[in-house]
Amino acid sequence: MVKRMRWITMLLFMCLFLTACMNTPAEQVGETQETEENQAISDQELLELNAVNPEDIEVFSEAPELIELVESGEIPSVEERLPVPEDIMVEQIENSIGQYGGNLVTPWEGADSKWLIGKPTEEALFRFNEAGDDIEPNVAKGYEVNEDATEYIIYLREGMKWSDGEPFTTDDVLFYWEHMLQKETFGKSVYDAYYTIDPETNERHLAEITKIDDYTFRVVHAFPSPNFLKRVAIDNKWFFAPEHFHKTILPEFVGEDKALEIAQEWGFSDVNSFLQETGYYYWVYEEIPTLRAWVASNDPHSEEFVMKRNPYYWKVDPEGQQLPYTDNFIASKIQDPSQGVLGVLSGEFTIGHFSMTDFPVLKENEEKGGYQVFTWPTAQMASTTIQLNQTTQNDNLRELVQDIRFREALSIAVDRQQISEIVTNGIAEPGQAAVPEGLVGYQEGWAEKWTDYDPDQAEQLLDELGISEKNAEGFRLYEDDSVVTLTIMEPNQDNSEFLELIKDAYENVGVKVNLNYVDSGTFQDRKYSNQVEATTENPMITNVALRPEVLVPLRVLTPWQGNYGLHRETGGENGTEPQDDVAMLVENWDRLISSPNEEEASEWADKIYQLHMENQWILGYTGPMPQIVVAANHLHNVPQERIFADELRELGHGRPAQFYFSE
Amino acid sequence: MFQYIIRRILLVIPVLICVSMIVFFVIQLPPGDYVTHYAAQMSAQGENMSQAEMDAMRAELNLDKHWVIQYFLWMKGILLEFDFGHSFSYNEPVTSVIDRYMALTLIVSIVTMAFTYLVAIPIGIYTAVRQYSISDYFFSALGFMGMATPNFLLAIVLMYYSYVNFGDPLLGLFSSEFENAPWSWAKIQDLMKHMIIPIIVIGTASTAELTRVMRGQMLDEINKPNVVTARSKGVPESKILIKYPTRAALNPVVSTFGWTLSNIFTGSTITAIVLNLPIQGPVMYNALLGQDMYLAGTWLLFMAVLTVIGTLISDILLAWLDPKIRTEIKGM
Questions:
Q1: Which CATH superfamily is domain B101-281 in?
Q2: Which residues of A touch B100 (CB under 8 A)?
């Protein structure tokens, strides 16, 4: 079945290519997009415009549909719906002041991809800034922190309201903290960000949170936590929940029986999955008030899931127009990813993001389809990688993969130029898996480590490992005469081109490779039971101090760490205890989180990066690839370039509330 | 006859019990379960579940129990409360998930089936009567092409032409503005416009097949003694055709009704995925892939029930249509 679907996709592309070739002369492609945005205001004017103080805005205005509602008396006037003037948030405009109307329509594969619409509409307490390296106020107005980073005072916006008009106050934060997060009602344990670690005893201490007044609360840590707010911005973006709603469904308040009854009314079979869905994936349920620019208005399993403008949204543009500009944010259901591309070509979808494999077809039809293609850089370590499980169950193989010479041999046995050209159309530069320049943790020379193509040297390194004997087919043998074999388990068929080249290169130096394609569920199962010898999983990397799991084995997640992660996750009960440099990683991490200030923390972070550079547990063959963001021509204020990363909320980093349509 | 029907209905019960067991056994065969699949899906979107979270979820959904116990719990629900279980990914009872897609599935299937019968049977009769004429060759060639072309390929070709000529590949069953709108004449027109491709695509293969079957049967029947006799007695040709050979030639059409019935309720799967149709096929395909076991199980069970019922109906219809079979049943 999967194979057949691939055929369908390929055929679809062929058809589309034909269209493109027949109708668009090649030289016309890509000329049109430059001129359009330039007609807008100059950079200087934009800076001045964006620097406006909310108190200086004299008149606030709203969307025509809301004016009607105000006139009919259904909702209060815009001034009453917004927070008090000095607490209103003025959203920075990307290019120009917009106008109301239009729908953002994006393809999604149904309600299971809730994050696809969750991320761009998300409102965090503090969000990441444009560069992605620090936080800035969002739901919270600001904060103060004492010198040793143990006490934070956080200010909310006075007069801010939930999407149903109820006031948003400190009580909503404390309610979430006391009755939901700490009681684990939605299936997540209290996030690491709220713990500090005693550097002497390694004991974990939970933060204390207290209310100061309706719009101010205090967070006290037992030990310094310099990165606290950044970590909250990643671990627990929404540190609040509508108390008035959750009080009506939580078993603590309505009793177990009543809670089950309510859950069943909603269609759920049990209370736990009901609370998990309503407490964690709340944005797809129209009954639950949120702080987002658009709120759910129908069943997420519909063919079109429509999120409607939130009349109580608390951000305005520099001229006092209440955001968002667009009426609805619509997720339209597709059954196959290729239909997303097709929908963009036919103008059905006005915004969306795609992987680089769709670049040629999207770029070629750019003019005819009436849209623009932007490339947003990603935080990938590499676009093509091989991760070797350091704790694989095969004793012979484990000894090999833990030996740095084996990894070096597999790195230099591959012609990166060839991979770059064949697999990435020459878009990704040949290189090692490394932190890309411009991101936290960049190390000079890392991307060039072990990248010279030299099969002879690779053979020599392998010979040194005691596997110099070869059988008649040219494959190396262990001392017990079994063949040196690496099984690469792969859940993503799109990587088959890359894997064929890798197989060829590895076998060229005598290491037999089996390729084993499995579905993603099976892969997950195998990964958690430590049965994956090697795979291609492609790690995303933002600051290790904030999201450590890719580089530091703290839990089962990244394939190269194998069972090391399980060891930490279960407190040493299961899994394999890290040794040598891997143990150093964990030790450095522990030091990092108990550092009293950011400078010291970043020193420990650097040590983690350096250990990775030295050991290269993740072998990369080509550098990072951008993500494609596509926007209809008449959709404005979509940034040409922004870092595309999960931590920065992907498309949400472009601030969709200020996107607008010109017609 | 009545006794025969009762006996057949009673026989259905053990068949269904066996089927339900096989279905459940097969569904839990692939490695992993709904939780692993769900975790994989979430991790692709950046949310990573820990082992403990996965275990808790498994316990909640009763997935940590042996499959035999799960089977009995499922059967208990069905028999005592007519509860087919919950769909994990929809978070609602399985029956309401099936219900959600039923109307559109039936519309697409029934229209397609009507198209098939209305086109295939007359052409089949016509090509048999005019054997080896130019029109026979034309329809035969068309029929072979229709049978040999995979549905999804035809779907892509038609979508391509629609996109090139009208700028709209006509995906789905409704345009965006009608998707959540209440029913109206404009919405029905929009639906009809979107139905053209699915009907042609899903209908073509079975039309081609049915034409060939009909033609072959007719050729067998058309020179039988009863037809010759009727003709010698001066009965008009059109009356002869309908009364004798056509009636007999319908036999294979009716006897395959059993499969047709389950097809009506499930719709086609691959074509529906290609054309992005909101009907049962793709929903069930995803349920099987995602190990949403109660949804997949109920659906497979449902298909089995329909096949059994369909076979029963076609047996009864055959008895009514064919005097020879009728006497055989009476003889028992």
A1: MetI-like (1.10.3720.10)
A2: 301
